[in-house]
């Protein structure tokens, strides 16, 4: 494998044009987040959506309904929804670490992979790992087999992440993502760890201040192209230009999609506030709206603790909210959970 930095000039007109577009759209996304009264509401939802989409790339397929039941019920089932929740925890853990330390290290990536996979496998010591297109079982790339070589490549990648400034961070991101996935340092969880590395790097380089831009949705939509480019670039590095263009386009499209989602969520919040004031003036508090849009799925315990009311008052409020169509309820075992269907449909779309 080639080490970074690659001996290829990426200051090409087409790449620079796409870079300008990507920077413009990511700048819009960064700016719009500041307009929200409580950005944490949107961030939580987008992080969960990313966790779901990134896991889906690895054929860990689940639904929002299953994920939220795993979160809110007292008798979680585990399985695929739990894996998605672990991914979200890994994002949060990684962000906390880079804010503390100000750099991204191999050890941090090992810790993230441990949370995703709940194992202590660490860097690969045995051969047999391949990157495969799960649609047709084509082997896209056979990464390094020797632990010493993997560690050497990871050390080189670590230096590049933290010290190299040859290109704009968005171009650097494409190179880092390609190299990490090509090294494939772990037995499992490489794809998910690599996609978390993307967001950590963007925050580290202050392209965004919050974990708001994720490429998993884009990779799912253009999965065949992604695998094709991984294969071609590992055969001949001249194709790295195409991979950089792929990632830059993904940043542009994902930024625009996320801006649109944020606007629609904010519009839904404002509409809910207005309607709740009209229909339930005796109980209306902005904290109630905020809770419903922060959790999507809730129950009496979460609702009353968050709003600061008694169990009886929470029961009364939740029944009124359901009667007026702001939420729907569902019996899960011995528990009743409440869903913000309006928000759930926005995120699904």
TrEMBL record:
Q: Which InterPro entries match?
A: ArsR-like_HTH, Fic/DOC_N, Fido, Fido-like_dom_sf, Fido_containing, SoFic-like, SoFic-like_C, WH-like_DNA-bd_sf
> Looking at the keywords, is Nucleotide-binding present?
yes
UniProt name for this protein: Fic family protein
Which parts of the chain span the membrane according to its record?
none
Entry binding sites for ATP: 58, 184, 188-195, 226-227, 234
The UniProt entry, under PANTHER family, shows: FIDO DOMAIN-CONTAINING PROTEIN DDB_G0283145, PROTEIN ADENYLYLTRANSFERASE SOFIC
Which keywords does this Swiss-Prot/TrEMBL entry list?
ATP-binding, Nucleotide-binding
Q: Which Pfam families match?
A: Fic, Fic_N, SoFic-like_C
Which residue intervals define the domain Fido in the entry? 104-249
UniProt GO molecular function: ATP binding
Q: Which organism is it from?
A: Hujiaoplasma nucleasis
List, from the UniProt record, the residues annotated as the active site of this protein.
Answer: 184
Per the record's keyword annotation, is Transport included, yes or no?
Answer: no
């Amino acid at each position: 494998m080639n080490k970074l930095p690659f001996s290829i000039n990426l200051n090409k007109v087409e790449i620079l044009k796409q870079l300008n577009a990507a920077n413009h759209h990511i700048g819009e996304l960064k700016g719009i987040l500041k307009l929200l009264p409580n950005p944490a509401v949107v961030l939580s939802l987008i992080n969960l959506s990313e966790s779901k989409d990134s896991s889906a790339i690895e054929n860990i397929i689940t639904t929002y309904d299953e994920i939220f039941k795993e979160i809110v019920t007292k008798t979680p089932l585990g399985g695929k929804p739990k894996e998605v929740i672990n991914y979200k925890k890994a994002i949060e853990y990684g962000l906390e670490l880079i804010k503390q330390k100000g750099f991204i290290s191999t050890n941090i990536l090992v810790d993230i992979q441990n949370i995703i996979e709940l194992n202590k496998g660490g860097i690969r010591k045995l051969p047999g790992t391949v990157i495969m297109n799960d649609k047709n079982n084509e082997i896209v790339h056979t990464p390094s087999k020797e632990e010493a070589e993997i560690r050497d490549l990871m050390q080189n990648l670590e230096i590049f992440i933290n010290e190299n400034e040859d290109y704009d961070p968005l171009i650097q991101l494409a190179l880092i993502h390609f190299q990490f996935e090509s090294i494939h340092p772990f037995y499992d969880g490489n794809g998910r760890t690599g996609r978390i590395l993307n967001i950590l790097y963007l925050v580290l380089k202050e392209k965004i201040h919050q974990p708001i831009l994720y490429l998993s949705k884009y990779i799912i939509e253009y999965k065949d192209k992604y695998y094709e480019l991984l294969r071609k670039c590992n055969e001949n590095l001249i194709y790295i230009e195409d991979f950089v263009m792929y990632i830059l386009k993904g940043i542009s499209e994902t930024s625009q999609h996320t801006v649109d989602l944020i606007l629609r969520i904010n519009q839904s919040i404002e509409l809910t506030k207005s309607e709740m004031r009209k229909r339930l003036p005796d109980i209306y508090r902005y904290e109630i709206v905020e809770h419903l849009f922060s959790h999507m799925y809730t129950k009496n315990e979460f609702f009353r603790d968050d709003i600061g009311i008694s169990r009886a008052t929470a029961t009364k409020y939740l029944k009124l909210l359901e009667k007026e169509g702001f939420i729907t309820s569902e019996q899960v075992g011995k528990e009743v959970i409440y869903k913000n269907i309006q928000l759930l449909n926005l995120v699904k779309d």
